[in-house]
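About this split. The held-out portion is used to measure sequence recovery: a designer receives only the structure tokens and must propose an amino acid at every position. Recovery is the fraction of positions where the proposal matches the reference. Here is one held-out target exactly as it appears in the evaluation file.
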């Protein structure tokens, strides 16, 4: 394990990802306090030191404590991790604001874009908590593997590179390699859009398509992400890295992926709500789909996969017809290079 000074860390949100990060950080010797607004969740964690429902088998060490009082997970913490689902980011940030001190580091680990404002999650946190130094931590990271100490690579992002380096020091270990990046907008845009592509990949699996189409969806999906990201002012290289292509591959291919699992159920004929209920966790791609479509329109970028997924998710279009229309689009060159 890579040495670093032990610090106090708060985790806002006690779902699978928050629990996996608590396990990782506490095993590095840090002192972790986890907060949840759900009393039964805190009771279960306190009694069993394990999230039996969302991350079974991952036992949390004694240097992890639990609370339903949000200030206790913020006061005197070296950094505070926000690990709540994207629909709750703004309301949670509002609740946190009065306890965050000037310059305190707040790290967002959720993935999504707010539909009503088209803001990334870190931008929402910065708007609600202007005194904080806001960063992100994202990449191809399933909680089920991080919570078992399986080798994983992730990226710490902040416009202030020194803050990203601090996060590297705190998180990096023999099992978790951490890179840094200052293109926070690119990191978060990729993290949100890949969930929509993963839904499409799952739908294709549910219909009964094979590996050929999955490869095409991943490849054309990253093309959509890059074109939109560049139009938004992001660095194209970010999308070909861990937070773009890397996260897209794992989310499209793994059964740990709630987006892929939901897509499979939709492809098999279940409604969006039925699929979300069966997965029993927030399916971020459903929430990101409309925002991604709106971003495409705002920046004048064509996003065929995103467009078809919106029609399937929200307009009652059948998955098979969506696939047929995607395959039947007019002929085009593969790249934007003139022929």
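Reference sequence for scoring:
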């Amino acid at each position: 394990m890579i040495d670093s000074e032990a610090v106090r860390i708060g985790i806002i949100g006690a779902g699978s990802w928050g629990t996996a990060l608590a396990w990782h950080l506490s095993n590095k010797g840090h002192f972790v306090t986890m907060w949840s607004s759900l009393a039964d969740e805190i009771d279960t964690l306190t009694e069993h030191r394990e999230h039996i429902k969302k991350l079974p088998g991952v036992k949390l060490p004694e240097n992890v404590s639990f609370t339903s009082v949000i200030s206790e997970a913020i006061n005197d913490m070296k950094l505070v991790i926000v690990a709540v689902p994207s629909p709750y980011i703004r309301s949670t940030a509002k609740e946190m604001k009065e306890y965050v001190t000037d310059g305190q580091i707040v790290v967002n680990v959720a993935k999504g874009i707010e539909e009503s404002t088209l803001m990334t999650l870190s931008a929402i946190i910065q708007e609600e908590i202007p005194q904080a130094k806001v960063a992100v931590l994202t990449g191809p990271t399933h909680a089920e593997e991080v919570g078992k100490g399986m080798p994983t690579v992730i990226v710490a992002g902040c416009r202030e590179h020194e803050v990203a380096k601090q996060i590297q020091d705190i998180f990096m270990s023999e099992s978790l390699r951490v890179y840094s990046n200052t293109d926070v907008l690119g990191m978060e845009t990729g993290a949100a859009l890949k969930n929509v592509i993963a839904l499409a990949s799952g739908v294709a699996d549910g219909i009964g398509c094979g590996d050929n189409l999955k490869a095409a969806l991943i490849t054309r999906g990253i093309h959509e992400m890059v074109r939109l990201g560049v139009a938004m002012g992001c660095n194209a290289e970010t999308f070909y890295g861990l937070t773009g292509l890397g996260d897209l591959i794992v989310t499209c291919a793994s059964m740990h992926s709630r987006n892929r699992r939901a897509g499979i159920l939709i492809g098999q004929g279940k409604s969006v709500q039925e699929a979300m209920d069966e997965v029993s966790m927030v399916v971020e791609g459903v929430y990101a789909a409309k925002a991604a479509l709106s971003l495409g329109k705002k920046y004048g970028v064509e996003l065929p996969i995103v467009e078809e997924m919106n029609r399937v998710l929200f307009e009652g279009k059948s998955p098979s017809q969506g696939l047929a229309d995607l395959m039947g689009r007019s002929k085009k060159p593969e790249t934007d290079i003139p022929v």
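Annotator remark: The CA atoms of residues 231 and 299 lie 6 Å apart.
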